Amino acid sequence: MGIFAGGTAVAAVPILILLLLPHPVAPFSFTYNFTSPSDTPPPGIAFQGDAFYNKAIRLARDERLGPITSSTGRAFYSRAVPLADPVSRRPASFVTAFAFSIAAPDPASASGDGLAFFLSPGDHVGVDFGGIVSSATADWPTSMKDGRTAHARVEYDGSAKNLTVALSYGSARPNATGDVLLWYAVDLRDHLPDSVAVGFSAATGEAAELHQVLYWEFTSTVDPKEETVVLWVVLGLCALLLVLVGVGILWFVRQWRKAGQFDDGKASRESDVYSFGVVALEIACGRRPAELNEEPSKARLVPWVWELYGKNALLEAADWRLKGQFDEKQMERLMIVGLWCAHPDYAHRQASGRP
């Protein structure tokens, strides 16, 4: 997506301001005043191509190093900015304002290709997606290559899916209403990935032109740090879940083993046999070893099945959800195996490995 600006009176001086800026969900902002007397780049700004820093962001080749024709450069915020809240997926909204200037060393010569996030020829302000043909444009009545300081404001409403661009010259910055040049309805997520780069680029082509960014502020509803925080929260929850599952399994195993322990409290092969017997009865009866909601005589599984065994009525304990659709002899055998493995006297339990 690109937003273009350029003059018309003297020559075609396009200014492309490609905004890949997202408007997120937790307050996030930065402000840079690039006019401080220093040639040290401020932290958080990355440079590519011929772009460099010298008391301002300069997007064309340093004129002290040679001709500035056929020059390209980019400067951008060093962290990607999300276009949506990483959890709710709510689209981001943002406002960015910046001051810039374009100057031709020789006013009588042809102008360069302008300043932008991505390039766009022509004397207009426009919005471009994936190409140099603008989706929306507005004419600018004067030249933009005379070195005057221009102030631009770009605002995107993620809920309304509306992009507005405002531009002014002089000391006054454009406001959100009276100085708006164009509106464009667009869902940026249809054209851009979840996270985007935010910055400026410029090119000169065969003509010389100087491009400077003097001031830049950006405010969004989603903080890029949130994506990292969400990732750590998800990983933490997954780790916690694994720990809880592990603890639950350990507790379950210990409870089963405890049910068949000797009086000295040590687990044994007999206790494992007891646990197997209880599991067999659970399968046959379709219930847990203890059911607090049952009547007292049925609350504990093993004593209840033993009682039915003594009454020669084992099948009354069969899982009622089977509705009698089972082999009665096989069901009785399963219950009897379970009972003998869970015999109250561990000396009478069927030990594993013995017939």
Automatic annotation (TrEMBL):
A Pfam family found in this protein is: Lectin_legB
Q: Which residues cross the membrane?
A: 229-253
Q: Where is the signal peptide?
A: 1-27
Query: Per its UniProt record, what InterPro entries does this chain match?
Result: ConA-like_dom_sf (IPR013320), Kinase-like_dom_sf (IPR011009), Legume_lectin_dom (IPR001220), Leguminous_Lectin (IPR050258)
Task: Give the source's domain of life in one word.
Answer: Eukaryota
The answer to whether the entry has keyword Repeat is no
Question: Is this entry keyworded Cell membrane?
Answer: no
Q: Which Gene3D superfamilies match?
A: 2.60.120.200, Transferase(Phosphotransferase) domain 1
Q: Name one GO molecular function term.
A: carbohydrate binding
Q: Where is the Legume lectin domain?
A: 121-226
Note the SUPFAM superfamilies from the entry. Answer: Concanavalin A-like lectins/glucanases, Protein kinase-like (PK-like)
**Which protein family is it in?**
Belongs to the leguminous lectin family.
PANTHER family linked: CONCANAVALIN A-LIKE LECTIN FAMILY PROTEIN, OS10G0129200 PROTEIN
Q: What is this protein called?
A: Legume lectin domain-containing protein
Gene source species: Miscanthus lutarioriparius
